[in-house]
Amino acid sequence: MAHQQSPNHSTHTLAQGVLRREPRAASRLLSWIENGDAKAIPELKEIYPHSGSSYIVGVTGAPGSGKSTLTDRLISLYRSQGQRVGVLAIDPSSPFSGGAVLGDRIRMQRHATDEGVFIRSMANRNWPGGLNRCTAEALKVLEAYGSDIVIVETVGVGQSEVEVEKLAYTTILVCTPDAGDKIQAMKAGIIEIADIVALNKADLPTADHAAKSIEMILSMNSSPGWTIPFLKTVAIEGKGVEELAQAIERHRSYIEEHGILKAKKIDSLKSHIREIIRRELYEKVRMQLPDEDELSRCAAKLMEGTTDPYTIADAFLKERRMTL
Amino acid sequence: MAHQQSPNHSTHTLAQGVLRREPRAASRLLSWIENGDAKAIPELKEIYPHSGSSYIVGVTGAPGSGKSTLTDRLISLYRSQGQRVGVLAIDPSSPFSGGAVLGDRIRMQRHATDEGVFIRSMANRNWPGGLNRCTAEALKVLEAYGSDIVIVETVGVGQSEVEVEKLAYTTILVCTPDAGDKIQAMKAGIIEIADIVALNKADLPTADHAAKSIEMILSMNSSPGWTIPFLKTVAIEGKGVEELAQAIERHRSYIEEHGILKAKKIDSLKSHIREIIRRELYEKVRMQLPDEDELSRCAAKLMEGTTDPYTIADAFLKERRMTL
């Protein structure tokens, strides 16, 4: 493989490779994004006009809720329909990102050789560009790679730094019966972020009790418009997965017909632009911060007990005339 | 109480109240810090010279490892020695911060009426000033309040955004036997952040196996200097707590004698100053970001498909001549 591809390497950009659906080009560009490498920017500019037509599905839920297994089943289903699928796993507990028990990981392997599937994990929480911006940019790569569906898997509801519901067009919240009391605590989150709620592991004895809690919470949602469907799934057996895909499809039609999809896309673009500007300015801030020597001198003054860090910081800022 | 205190309210600052060990003054100032309220700054300046003499102990570990119970036992022990104790719980699963089962919370209650104990939970992950700066500032308040010991409780090793080991002088890592394989995964973290390792719930049948894993990891640590003590505790029964306090004391003597405590304090001051400067500059950045209208206009251009967000961001920055 390496031998076949190398002759082209010098004559085309990574962006062109991505558009030609070369997995190695996509992987490499994603690594640049992950590392905050400035080389990614011209590539992203180049692929930008070729992105925007994938449908982005968010799968979110606590670690261990089985969202990876559900994602795995959705991949199979979409593949059987001939759709190309991209997966972005930002959950460190996801088998896609290497954080799972062996069985899970083996299950995922079956998609590894399918050229219609591209899976990328991004477990790094210290992205220089910020988690949301990196996610947004990674999605653009998966879109340009020709994915019909892109699934973003994240740990959810207050646990994740990614506001996946802002990037995804349809967000599935995966709950489990054993979450018990936590379902109550998730109340606000459920209604705010979920477009679809799936109770996975619905074959557990406590499933009925959990289902009642969820139904009660959903029934309290009096906001007009989309009624959040509530489905029971047993992802490991593939049960309920077809119904889930149908619910996604219904939601997609709903948001397309009501102009919500367009509004969501505009919101994503706005926050992407804002993140780029913020990032540029923060970069400049970082370069202006005092260096170790200066900080050591400041700390020495503080240790004498004659001043405080606020006064020192003030003096530093004034001395440098640091204003935007 | 409210009646007695109110006459003074207008005539003294919160800082003075903190120094007079008034719990309500401390609570209020901590709320200001938590909310990123600028009113906190002059108060912090005022208390600053009166802080710095407390000994700061970090207690870190996964949710459910029993670190709150251990903290609770340490409080009792220190109180029996006549020491004043402050507790800062930044772990959302801590009973101190309201995230525990009823039994845990009832246990903690016994300290609520002890005027030598001040407990504050800060579960908010969206602190405007950043988690580390808020923690550093909250610690200053607990110090000025006259705490001999301040215990900072956080979820640990890669799970927390607080780098508690940088703020604490002695960091205790609490492990449990049921963490099983996770202990292996924590390998680097154990050696990097722990000054003392406690295997809690050491009465569980799997404790011996876990103890062997931990001992093996610790034996691999060939760095010179402090040898990390490994203790078994059953916090709920108070077993091993005295030994833990002795280990803390030994570590304290060690770092005092080797100049490490002073170096740690200097490092804390340096990062505090840096955080204040960073924060001030970021605040200015935030004020310079495009507003909703400007973003909407940018997004509309993008939807036409003729440009990309990087070009738009560039134009925005150039137009505003935004340079530091």
Oligomer state equals homodimer
The end-to-end span of chain A amounts to 50 Å
CATH class of the largest domain in chain A: Alpha Beta
Q: Which structural class matches the secondary elements of chain A?
A: alpha/beta
Question: What is the typical, i.e. mean, pLDDT of chain A?
Answer: 83
Shape, principal axes of CA atoms of chain A: globular
The figure for the number of domains of chain A is 2
Strand line-up of the largest beta sheet of chain A: 3-2-4-1-5-6-7
Helical residue percent of chain A? Answer: 40-55%
Low-confidence stretches of chain A: 1-9
Task: List how many beta strands of chain A DSSP finds.
Answer: 7
Label the CATH architecture of the largest domain in chain A: 3-Layer(aba) Sandwich
Q: Which two chains form the greatest contact, residue counts included?
A: A-B, 45 and 47 residues
Largest sheet composition of chain A: 7 strands, parallel
Give the radius of gyration of chain A. Answer: 23 Å
Instruction: Assess the beta-strand content of chain A as a share of residues.
Output: 5-15%
The helix tally of chain A amounts to: 15
The CATH superfamily of the largest domain in chain A turns out to be: P-loop containing nucleotide triphosphate hydrolases
**What is the H/E order of chain A?**
HHHHEHEHEHEHEHHEHEHHHH
How is the CATH topology of the largest domain in chain A named? Rossmann fold
